[in-house]
Amino acid sequence: MVTSYFTNDTLEFLSRYSHIPKVSISHEFDNIHSFIINNHEGMTKIVEHLIIDHKYRNIAMIKGPETNDEANIRFEAYCQVLKKHKIPLDDQIILEGNFLPESGEKGINDLHKSQKLDSIEALVCANDETAVSAINRLIELGYKVPEDIAVTGFDDNMGMDNLSPPLTTVRQPFEKMMKSSYETLIDLINQKESPMVHSTP
Predict the structure, then answer these.
(1) Half-sphere exposure of 71 (CA within 13 A, CB side)
(2) Cis omega (within 30 of 0) on the bond before 146?
(3) Scanning 78, 93, 171, 191, which has its CA 20 to 30 A from the CA of 87?
(4) CA distance 170 to 154
(5) What is the pLDDT of residues 143-179, one digit of tens each?
(6) Concatenated DSSP letters for 59-100?
(7) Chain-centre distance of CA 138, in angstroms?
């Protein structure tokens, strides 16, 4: 399945080099060997952690861009976990985002304006940048994280382990994916067969 995140110009550019061995990391393309993370499993685990380990029920989410397959999979997992635990979806605490820091600040401002913020127990963010921005805005508004509102991210980007308060996030195995993609590229150059899609837990 070709991801809709890329423009036709990008896909046309890739098609010019169809004869050259290549791999894709994080995005799945037709006819290109792709290395992707199991976004569904990662998001499922972090939302279940909030529900099972912390007993949270009122869990908001700031989504990623609708044009991004990974963002859509993460949101779908969030919805499925809430349904599994018989927690109704509340459209008023599900907010649009774009993976950029501005999404976090805007999401908190929207929750504050709609007077939903005080009822939120936890906030699930589609990625780390959104989560960090949301935490900063919560602190500006006088909330304690995670005491008042727990916040989670996704990706575990470089520097996330130095945050205060620490960010609960899902780690993408970037080093493992890079190593595996390099090995696959060598195999392709040597005309060895390899699976088209490699999914990493």
Answers:
(1) 22
(2) yes
(3) 171
(4) 5
(5) 999 999 999 999 876 555 666 777 888 866 666 667 7
(6) EEEE---TT-HHHHHHHHHHHHHHHHTT----GGGEE---SS
(7) 20
